[in-house]
Input
Amino acid sequence: MKSPTTKIQNWAIAFSVICLHTMAIFAQQTMPVPGVAKPVTVPAVSEKILPNGLTVAVVERKNVPLVTAQLLIKSGANIENADQAGLANITFSLLTKGTKTRTATQIAEQMECLGGSINTGAGWNNSNVSINVMTDKLGAALAIMSDVVLNPVFKQEELTLLKSQMLDNLTYNLKQPGFLGNYVASAYSFYEHPAGGTPASLNKITQADIVRFHKDAITASNAVLIFTGDITPDTANLLAQQYFGKWKSGENQELNIKSVYETESKPPLVRRMLVVDMPDSGQASVKYLQDLQIGRIDASKRSSSVYYPAIVLNSALGGGYSSRLNQEIRIKRGLSYGARSDFAWRKAASNFITSTQTKNESAAEVAALILDEIKKLTQSPIEKTELAPRKLALTGDFGRNLETTDGLATAVAELYSFGIPTNELNTYMKNVDAISDQQIRDFAQHNLLGGDIVIVGDYAKFKDDLKKRFPDLKVEIIKADSIDLSKLN
Output
């Protein structure tokens, strides 16, 4: 048996070796070279259109006995009127709350007995109902799915309960600076309405409104039934015909295209600044927002020429922990727990947003830092040592998401939502890798300048610093407890 002294000596030696190894790693003068991107090949999407206009899309992958079936409806909050904001969200939330033959409890219990799940959701561009289940339980799960889609009853008591829950959540969220910033930006910068609704719009929505939305928007000709996983096209088409073949075709809904301002030939770095004054808020939300005058697709219904430069730019600017915004705001200065950016794509026009939260006293400083990083993108090159890892982060996430049946179905659904050919799944990585630094700079110069700064926080705590940093910019101020979105756009 080793003595205590010997054990301590061995531990000390081991600790010293670990410390020396760690020091050697940190002593490296260059970052490790990124590995080679793993190629991703997605089987061709098999497509068939049923007599009622329903498109059936199948990607067969037999590595596990699991199937995801997603019913994509190619419209969502984009076909709502602003005074009925939240209608799509409420409608799809109620689909699983009872049908002509099943109660909400029975739907949940029957899916649980199958070892599967059923989910619904409504976004801006589309809505969906999806199931995940083992292959041998797919038929039984599709019976529930079709019942939910075709035969909902929208009971008044379920609607009343859901509206109450949504209003409670909205009341709470409107007191959070980050959420309130997005809420205000939907109207102020993007000329839209909040997809989740407003207190006024949610209160107005009636059972008749929901029944009408279901009848007009949730139709076979406006839908794609996507199967991914352990299923053949022949089997998928037979099941689709069995459970959705009697669904009425309907008419496609027209989009509510937003009205937008005319862009200046040489816009300033910032077009407007809005402060939402929230006294005694714990933190301030700081956002830069730009309404892009170009969308996800071009005239030929393929990805627009700006899409891939935009997503690579976003990866560098605010697409992860190593991105520029997070480096400057969190890592170097400790002003926030995180900073990010993103694009919300539409068919004809899209939204760009950067988001972070900080203490009220540093809100103006953070706003200036965000603008500095955007300005750098328009003027300075991105070195290969930065660009290559940011591309690999994009392609790595893409490939990883396609490893699951649910992730694959979501990727296919996005393409169908915009009407983009599904073979783009197999060109994504090549398209990302082909983007040059010059393309990114051109995109930034033509699309990111002239946006809005929206700050939600305790104005008294950053008022003076804001004036020092932005002396020539007029600041519009509104009170957080008296917001009227109709007066912002």
About this structure: Residues 255-263 have pLDDT under 50 and may be disordered. The first strand starts at residue 46 and ends at 49. DSSP finds 17 helices and twelve strands in the chain. The chain has two domains: 46-244, 270-487.
